[in-house]
Amino acid sequence: MDTNQILIYVMGGSVAVLAIIIVAYLMIKKALDKGDRKYVRELRKGTKTSKFSSEVLYQKLYVKYTRIPGLKRYLMKIRRKLEIINIEDEFKTRGQSSAIITKALLIIVPLTILIIVLAKSNPLLLGILLIFEIFTIDTLVDTMIGKLDTKLLKQQIDFFAEIRHAYHEYNMVEEAIYEVSQNDELEVSRQGEKIYEILISDDPEGELEKYYDVAPNSYLKEFAGISYLTREFGDRKTNDGASLYLKNLNNITQEMQIEILKRDKLEYVFQSLSIIAVVPVLFIEMLKQWAVTNFSFTSSFYNRKNWTNNANITCSTNSSMLSTSKKSKRYKLKQHKRSKFTKPLATKIIQKEADKKICRLIYTKKRYKAL
Fold first, then answer.
1. How far apart are CA 121 and CA 282, in angstroms?
2. Through-space distance between the first and last CA atoms of the chain, rounded to whole angstroms
3. CA 52, 57, 62: angle at the middle one, nearest 5?
4. Contacts with 146 (C-beta within 8 Å, 6 or more apart), sequence order
5. How far is Cα 299 from Cα 355, in angstroms, rounded to an integer?
6. Which of 121, 159, 183, 320 is most exposed by smallest CB count within 10 Å?
7. What is the pLDDT of residues 45-95, one digit of tens each?
8. What does the H/E/C string look like for the chain?
């Protein structure tokens, strides 16, 4: 074997070894890349949003609704009510306002078409039913907002229960409120953050008075009041050795539970009342045709004062519906007036059970401000 043949074999072997190394390198790299991609996919799982998002849709619809003159005015009316619940949360307020308007339109538009089809032969009845539909919209929107208010009230029960546990752990009111208010998904957490900001502010008494004007319900006012007094003058012990702050918190929770039961009872009593009131009116014309066809003597009754009969029936139905709607709102208005013109109940409880030392501290503080 000469030198040239040996050199060829060596070169061939070197190329073969190099090819094996390259193939092995590519296989290892592919396996590593596959593992990295899998790891990245695992990290991105659950974080990538879907193409369709109802929140984004409602935000876009909100902008569209503000460009429609008549709808914009009603949208602002709903927004003012929701701003109290979603304190300083513009995104949530816009989304809920747009959602309520959208749901109302999805119900009202088919209902309007149905009314036009059923009452097109009677212009007077058609006009009265369309007016009746306006009151139906208002009732529907108030019901949706009322559900949000009740939802906030139910969240407050769990919120106050967590406040009790956090207060046992930290023994500080502001730290307990801050710890429980970290859940951003709940509406009551924003109220807790607002109360926490009031307690740590430079002028908590003035900020507390401002919060009384915008609080969603009287129970949050009472909670803010007892939290401020407890942080300012310290917690007290009752005759049985229990915490006065936790006792007042328990009293507020019991009041909220009674309030929720009353609201559930009212909702059960007045449910489906709008449908019961409007269904007979929709079939007045059909009832007239059936009566005239089967009982000929009724034709003189309907043909003599047709417009007066229809007007009386529909107007009486509208009046009964309005009176029922007012009765369902009477309880909420009563609670609103009570919280507006009276002091929080928890503040009275604390002042009643406070001793002379705390009274002297309060008097000294007021006298110092006067000077």
1. 12
2. 119
3. 175
4. 263, 332
5. 82
6. 121
7. 655 555 667 888 888 888 988 898 888 888 888 888 888 888 778 888 888
8. CCHHHHHHHHHHHHHHHHHHHHHHHHHHHHHHHHHHHHHHHHHHCCCCCCCCCHHHHHHHHHHHHCCCHHHHHHHHHHHHHHHHHCCCCHHHHHHHHHHHHHHHHHHHHHHHHHHHHHHCCCHHHHHHHHHHHHHHHHHHHHHHHHHHHHHHHHHHHHHHHHHHHHHHHHCCHHHHHHHHCCCCCCHHHHHHHHHHHHHCCCCHHHHHHHHHHHCCCHHHHHHHHHHHHHHHHCCCECCCCCEHHHHHHHHHHHHHHHHHHHHHHHHHHHCCHHHHHHHHHHCHHHHHHHHHHHCCCHHHHHHHCHHHHHHHHHHHHHHHHHHHHHHHHHHHHHHHHHHHHCCCHHHHHHHHHCCHHHHHHHHHHHHHHHC
Q: What is the mean pLDDT of residues 17-28?
A: 79
Q: How many CA within 13 A on the CB side of residue 206?
A: 4
User: Could you give the count of Cα atoms lying within 13 Å of 120 in the half-sphere of its Cβ?
Assistant: 6
The tokens for 246 are 């936790």
Rounded-to-integer distance, Cα 13 and Cα 100, Å: 78
| Structure tokens that stand for 236 in this block | 């007290």
- pLDDT tens figures, 230-255: 988 888 888 888 888 899 999 999 99
* Number of CB atoms found within 10 A of residue 276's CB: 11
Quote the tokens at residue 145: 């907002």
Q: Going by C-beta distance under 8 Å and a sequence separation of 6 or more, which residues neighbour residue 244? A: 230, 235, 236, 237, 238, 350, 353
Share of residues in the chain with pLDDT > 90 (%): 10
- d(CA 152, CA 188) in angstroms, rounded, equals 6
What residue type is assigned to position 205 of the chain? E
* Cβ atoms of 338 and 218 closer than 8 Å: yes
Two tokens, residue 315: 């107007």
